[in-house]
Amino acid sequence: MWFQDEARVGQKGRLCHRWWIKGQRPPGTCDHRFQWTYIFAAVQPATGGEFALVLPEVSTRTMALFLERFAATLAPDEHAVVVLDGAGWHGANALVVPDNVTLVTLPPYSPELNPVERVWLFLRERFLSLRVFPDQKAIVQACCEAWMALAQEQGRIQSLCLQPWIQKVIS
Fold first, then answer.
1. How many beta carbons lie within 10 A of that of residue 39, not counting itself?
2. What is the per-residue pLDDT for 92?
3. Contact call for residues 4 and 116 (beta carbons, < 8 A)
4. Which fold has domain 2-8+32-170?
5. % of the chain exceeding 70 in pLDDT
């Protein structure tokens, strides 16, 4: 069982929480330009397995590309159930889903059921907040570096994503 989601990262940035002196604003940078890129990711909470692509847009075409590349990483006799939200590009008629992947949609308005949301929070808090990116190439580079740092931390995916209800479902 895998969980999939996308996150937008860009020049607009995101501020994070900081402890600071009462009555004063904490230092931080913020950009007001509008270039974005997206991290498409799938995680397997039970094993800590992960797969991600950094892509320039969210669309049915990029989702199909993500699923194609993800399916290629699976063993020949393996079938993945991928749980995802109800974004329009996830259920579009034009979306080509590989034979070794089955998509299961979460109920509407329930992001708390997708553990990948916790991965995005972690990446933003640790690697992607309070930064100004000069251009799209720098955004892509930062996303790749953040994901690789996450992937190299042993057990981090499991600690973020293996929620008690998921343990019940997979056991």
1. 23
2. 84
3. yes
4. Nucleotidyltransferase; domain 5 (3.30.420)
5. 90
Q: Is the dihedral of CA 56, 125, 131, 145 positive or negative?
A: negative
Q: What angle do CA 52, 148, 117 make, to 5 degrees?
A: 55
Do the Cβ atoms of 128 and 17 come closer than 8 Å? no
| pTM given for the model | 0.86
Question: What is the chain's length?
Answer: 171
HSE value, Cβ hemisphere, 13 Å, CA-based, for 16: 13
Angstrom distance (rounded) from CA 166 to CA 113: 9
- Specify the pLDDT at position 41: 97
What the block records as the tokens of 125 is: 């808090």
Judge contact between 141 and 9, C-beta under 8 A: no
Q: Are 16 and 129 in contact (CB under 8 A)?
A: yes
Q: Where are the domains of the chain?
A: 2-8+32-170
Give the full edge-to-edge strand order of the sheet including 80-84: 49-55, 36-44, 2-10, 80-84, 101-105
